[in-house]
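User: Show me an example of a complex going from sequences to structure tokens.

Assistant: Sure. Here are the input components:
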Amino acid sequence: MIKQIIKLHSLKGWLFTFSLLGIAIILLPLLNIFAPENSFLHIPDYMFSLFGKYLCYALVALAIDLIWGYTGVLSLGHGVFFSLGGYAMGMYLMRSIGKEGVYKSELPDFMIFLDWKELPWYWWGFDSFIFTFFVILIMPGLFAFIFGYFAFKSRIKGVYFAIITQAMTYALMLLFFRNNTGFGGNNGLTDFKKILGYSLQEPSTKMSLYILTAIVLFIFYVVARFVVQSKFGRVLTAIRDSENRVMFSGYNTLNYKLAIWTISAFICGIAGALYVPQVGIVNPSEMQPSNSIEMAIWVAVGGRGTLSGALVGAGLVNGAKSWFTVAAPDYWLYFLGILFIVVTLFFPKGFVGIFSRLRIKRKGNQNG
Amino acid sequence: MEGFCCCNKKSFYSFKPRLLSLNLKISGNSKLIFALVVFLTMGFFLISTVEANEFENTLKDLGNKSRSKIKLAVKALGNMGNPAAIPVMEALKEKRLRISDNDSLIILNEAKDKGYDALTGQPVELGSLNLRKPRINNAVRRLLSTAIGKLKLFSDDPEIRLSAARDLLKRSSNNLVELIEKALKKETEDEIRNLFLLVLAKEGLNSDDKSKRLQSIKTITTLGNNDFKTILEEVLEKNEEDEFLEKDSEIRDAASNAIAKIEKRQFVKNQAANLFYGLSLGSILLLAALGLAITFGLMGVINMAHGEMLMLGAYLTFVVQNLFKEYLPGYFELYLIAAIPVSFLGSALVGIILERGIIRHLYGRPLETLLATWGISLILIQTIRLVFGAQNVEVANPSYLSGGVEVMNGIVFPYSRIAIIIFVVGVVISIWMLLQKTSLGLQVRAVTQNREMASCMGISTYKVDMYTFGLGSGVAGLGGLALSQIGNVGPELGQLYIVDSFMVVVLGGVGNIAGTVAGALSLGIFNKFLEPVAGAVLGKIIVLVLIIVVIQKRPQGLFSLKGRMVDN
């Protein structure tokens, strides 16, 4: 097993991966603590929330790359799994506010506002972190499993599948927008105070969450790499390239697709759960169909079917988004729109594809 | 969605002045114009007649300092039967009448910042005048109600009588019973007669005479609407000891029978309204989805920017409207007709540019096309936002589409929605003809069925793609035009309809018009019938879930062609 994992990368590859991890979880925090306040090496506190957010997005992109890049199933519904994980975490954070809310009540503020007298049954248990932890692990995956089972069983694929997942996203968004659904309606869950007893306002808590996210991302990167290079992963790639031939060769593609779909949703749910304490809010707009489509473009920009490309793409697109929304908010949608078009038209292999093409060219030049 | 609207406000101020015996019908809800016309004509032709002088003097008495004089004047005006007195009396009742130093009457508008002379109709400068309020009390107000009601009930204009009858129904009118009975005898129009009967029945319910009460309930049973339910329920009320307040069981039975009848009638009405609004929603969905179904069936690509074609069509209608307002104000009403070709061609052109420029290059990669067209839609939305602003723009209904037809008591079908349904029928028939009866249609069908084979037979498939894409986008543009007549026009217009129109395509199956029609209409009607039961949001969710379930059984849509194809 360990041997297999070591074989996932070349020595150079492992060195590179570990040095990235080292920079993320050791060097950057050290720069925050020890570099002088006004030096250009200093990383301010707020940056860690931002970095943490990006890392969560990268985790989502990783999940989408597994299902889209490797299996060829485009999902426009990953925002739902992300939100489900996020809402589960949000519910725990709401419960741990305790009586420190505006209305000084045991119930979350929005329930007081709706004049609810007691906690609805589906909120039971969220006072416990262990319970929440298991919900985060199980709920998004379970939901994806049920949905995927029906969708894949009736052989919905291609654009049909994309559209159906979009409809699911839309329906759930509407559901969560309702006040009576019991998840805070329009405003969602917010005003969090503490996680596991630590204040969310403290820079140290934020830093810890960031480091945790980086480690989780690293672990899932290795897991994903392991999955795609296993025999299972080979079958997935074959399904992407010609599902019928795989079926005719005697594989039951339903099981393969369902498995990777569920894993992908599972990862997405964890990303959502890590995301919510770092941004301090979760609301139904996370489930907007446009959000889910944007997630797909992260992967497309970075390069599909490469894993590393997904991470790069999430970073690049969201970095650009942060810059645009400050510098030229009117043109962000133009940029995003053009990105969608240019990447699909001219760079189907994405950012990573450009690099590998250059590398092949250089090698070719050396040989020739 | 806009609900059942009722617009009898307009008819309130339009009537034939009986005194002038002129067929002067004044429409429009501007009091100012109305008064101007009435009083100027009076000033020119009739100022010398005795009758007019008497009327004018009595009118002036409304501003008298003595309350008894006012009372006399009100009674006299009620008996004179000149409807010109109505606005003055109403102003008096609503405390909007003022008297200036030289005893002329001034009527203020509702905001009380402008006024005009009640006799001449001339606007007056309020600031320069020393105005006095007339002294009225409840006794005067009661007299005023009676006099106004009298003038209206006996007016020559059936519209005034109708609105008066409707007003009576809304409030208690026990002091007017004799008047109404008299008016009923004279009344010839059935609709107004029925209203009068209902008003009398409402009063008769409180009478001491049992047969009169039964008669009243009978009238309500046959003519009454939902508003009468509460009145009837009062009859059935119980006291704390669980005894009926109403001792007479015959009356109780009649009342509960009446409630059941009314409820049944209301149910039928509601279903009719649901059906109509469902058809209306379905026809809009159809316009939105038709183009999508054609292009999807033909090229196998999902055009995420399709919703934006709707939006473009709506904005083109807006632009045409503004051009007409600017350059051809005389023909403003016709702008909608002119907007039909503009919105079709404009959207079609954009569609063709997209197909030529982007979508063609992604042939055979449907998922990428989906993403690229999403990118296009973002660019289009942002462009519209930068050009027209992020706020909704206003597209006015031309006068022939405003208002509606009242099919049953309380249920109005707006003309705009009826027109859209007819319009959609026209569009569907034209597209069907185009696909079935022209050579382009033949080619489109050939390429939809088997692209390679069609290409081998000498059909230039790329041209067919281009035209079809243009056609699909153009139809969406027409959808936008239709939408502009019943909803808001804003940059996100297309986004609202895109998921629904995808659902129609998924439900109806691709590439056949019949499936799309059936899908759109069933989705629209189902939605509207579900809404009152489950609420708008939950209804929508149920519909989406049901579609996902339907797809389980018929993955290629409800109305797809059967085949044994392996797609790869």
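The lines above are the inputs; the final block is the predicted structure for all two components together. Chain A has a mean pLDDT of 90.
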